[in-house]
Input
Amino acid sequence: NRDVAVLDAAAFPRTKLCAGWVTPKVLADLELSPDAVPGLVELSKMNLHWKGSKRSLPMPSKQYSIRRSEFDHFLLKRSNVTTLEHRVRKIHHDGDYYIIDDAFRCTYLVGAGGTQCPVKKALFPEVQQSRDRIALARELEYEPTHPIHPRCHLWWFYPNSPGYAWYVPKQNAINIGFGYFKHPV
Output
């Protein structure tokens, strides 16, 4: 029973690179059954790998993967909220309201813009990401011409180099990537 609007810099659906990991708890919190979400792929097993080990540890799993472009679009349509393509530049608090770019006014404001979130920048400027907690990542999601391996694979390169990599199968796609925790300068 709220009047809700989503302001986003780009229209949906759009590419959103992400391993697209969804847990059963997320689905339960959203009051969704797995069958109700188009494109959801059950990951019943995953393989864990460690640096220097020639073997992997197969683990039973009850997780799901999905392409974020499809999941985000599905959730927005399901919520039936107003979506507006708008890049937020300025936010200030005025009494009981937040004023956004002198064009929008709201009582409650939720920021979900990642590292460049305008809500965080405007309302919490003292919160800076610690230089010793920066994670750098590179990923690719593509539709392969070969059969998709059905198991998720996760690699950990600890303790010598603080990195990780992944292979996450999705419906008609694969998401691969690697990440590295940057040391302080």
Q: What stands out?
A: The helical segments are 24-29, 68-79, 118-123.
